[in-house]
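BUG: 3D viewer hangs when loading the predicted structure for this chain

Environment: internal workstation, default settings.
Expected: structure renders.
Actual: progress bar stalls at 90%.

Input used:
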Amino acid sequence: MTQEPPLEEHAQSAPPARPNTQTARSRPGFKQFPGTYSLIAITLVVFLGQFLSVELFQFDWLLEMGAKSGPEILSGEIWRFITPMFLHVTIPHVLINMYSLYAIGPAVERFFGTARFVAVYLLCGIAGVILSLAFSPYPSAGASGAIFGLLGSLGAFLYLHRGLFGRFGLIQLRQIVLVALLNLGLGLMPGIDNWGHLGGLLAGIALTFFLGPRYEAVWATGENGQLVDRRPWDEVRVLFVAAAGFLAAIALLVVFFLA
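Structure tokens produced before the viewer hung:
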């Protein structure tokens, strides 16, 4: 009898430094970044539920109901395209991922807005599961596919606004590229689902290029300059629905070819 391969963990992404803007001088709490802190709270509550379920009822949510697992997804458990980003394998796994989200989330939410930030996080997490299902036969779970998506989003945002942020933005961009490459390199170690990381990263870049904010500095006589988003969430949220439909179509194609 052969032993089933161990459940893979997503590698953790170290966040880049925060953007150098007036609002980035401090890290306020829930009222300023409700998306980031809500995602952290939900993930921690889910992990607590996992832990108590195993300890009290010997029922493992991770394997039975939520982890990315090819046979279960192919048999119709399509919710497993979403649930893996909220499930984690160990206590260090969830804590490191949530620290990464705490560190990088506010930087993205500040510029993207809460609704667009949460949409990017969820779509990147789903994209990571899709690519992992297509190329990795092993079960996996963890939020780092979505966190890699935030890393890619912030990198694409700084690239698109390199003229606005100048030399500082280019330094930040180089740091993000280095962090992404290092973590993808670490993902080559056994037991780490690098396909999930890559899927999230690529999705974050693509979403930001096509649907992300576009800021422009507007100056008024006798006043400080302001950043104005020329592509606000209200104008692109329908396109995010289209992006979700596109990911759903890709997921169906992957399921069709693997079935």
